[in-house]
Amino acid sequence: MRLFERIEAQLEKLPERPFWPRPSPLDFTTNDYLALQADGIIAEILRGFPAELWRGSGASRYLGGDHPAYHHLENLLHEKYGQPALLFPSGFVANITLWEALAQRGDTIIYDREVHASIRQGIRLSLAQAWGFPHNDWEAAEKLLRQARGETFLVVESLYSMRGDMPDPEALRYLQARYECHLILDEAHTTLIYPDGETWAHRHGLNPLLTLITFGKAVGLMGAALLAPPLLHTYLQRRCIGTIYSTALPPLIAAAVAQVFAQARAWLPRQTQLWQIVALLRKRLSAEGIPFLGLQGPIAMVKTPAAGIPLKRLSPPTVPEPMYRLSLHANHTQQDIETLVRALKGGMNQL
Asked: Is the pLDDT of residue 351 over 70?
């Protein structure tokens, strides 16, 4: 079959994926969890920087593209989280290039099957044996850990974007101690949603080998960083192609991310409001008999559309069955939640 005939046949099986602008006036779609974008705080931070920062990096940090703004941000994150930080252009780039550097032939990677596509693709680039286990099925994970050989890595997310739920920290603590596996934690959707920017892992007394934090969701900008022990940090700086060969973030972005983290304590009212809204929606959906998944954080999955409110409809293979994803923000009000609940009830009546 010729190439374009094959592509045409495959296209017929794929759902459309239209680009979406930010919904207005009610946004239950984006990952702007603290509403730093929506409320103009990010724009205000960006406007405060000198013109010297208003440019691209021009190259990889290893080829003339380095800038003091990157070191300032990495040092700030190191001081805040107690481990050296290595910047990446995005969480996707970090995930997809980490495993080729970290895991070797003879090692074993055990991962939750609901981890982000970038993690699964990155694992495929390694030479290690890799096994996935059903989502949050710790008995299945333990069976695989018993069979593991070499250095063993257990890979999970702190909050699953297409589930809205979290792993069991007690199970992770037990498995890490019992099998001496290296815990790798993607905290993309929990970065900065806890007071003072505390990580989900620290909040639950976990000690991951590597933690991914990202800047494109609650932080309101773009980019990511891996937090790693000093020796591993140095190794990844010299070996991980995602940071070596990628054009660096614009210095302006790094400076703005640093300012957001430097002001972490100022976001406490927003973090408090966000968790109150999560609890309120959980209560209201349960009271109205509207089925949902998640809401262990600011993400929920529902089976019905919300009449008059744009919600992203997801289809397999992204999710097992068609679902609508909604996300909550710190600037949502009780009235917004009531509007959403009414819209979901209206969507149920249309089915």
From this structure: no
Q: 48 is written with which tokens?
A: 């405060």
Q: Which of 212, 234, 262 finishes a domain?
A: 262
Which candidate, 78, 29, 73, places its Cα nearest to that of 222?
73
CB 278 within 8 A of CB 165: no
Segment 28-50 mean pLDDT: 97
| CA–CA dist 206, 227 (Å, integer) | 14
Residues 126 and 74 both lie in one domain: yes
* Domain shared by 254 and 277, yes or no: no
Angle between helix axes 68-81 and 251-262 (nearest 10 degrees) is 30
CB contact at 8 A, 175 and 141: yes
Q: Report yes or no on whether pTM surpasses 0.90.
A: yes
DSSP code for 271: H
Q: Which of 231, 207, 211, 238 is nearest to 101 (CA)?
A: 238
Per-residue pLDDT tens for 311-322?
Answer: 988 887 778 888
Q: How does pLDDT run across 56-83, given as a tens digit for each residue? A: 999 999 999 999 999 999 999 999 999 9
* Beta partners for residue 111, in sequence order: 132, 155
Instruction: Measure the CA–CA gap between 272 and 275, rounded to whole angstroms.
Output: 5
Q: Which residues in the chain belong to E strands, given as ranges?
A: 85-88, 108-112, 129-133, 152-157, 182-186, 210-214, 224-227, 292-294, 299-302, 312-314, 323-327
Average per-residue pLDDT for the chain? 95
Q: How far apart (Å, rounded) are the C-alpha atoms in residues 87 and 73?
A: 9
Whole-number Å distance between alpha carbons of 302 and 105: 41
Q: Tokens for 183?
A: 């815990």
Shared-domain flag, residues 248 and 288: no
Q: Determine if residue 276 is left, alpha or beta; phi over 0 gives left, psi from -120 to 50 gives alpha, anything else beta.
A: alpha
Task: Say if residue 1's pLDDT is above 80.
Answer: no
Distance CA 6, CA 234 (A): 44
Strands 224-227 and 210-214, bridge-based pairing: antiparallel
End-to-end C-alpha distance for the chain, whole angstroms? 41
How confident is the model at residue 265, as a pLDDT? 96
Structure tokens at 306: 């919300």
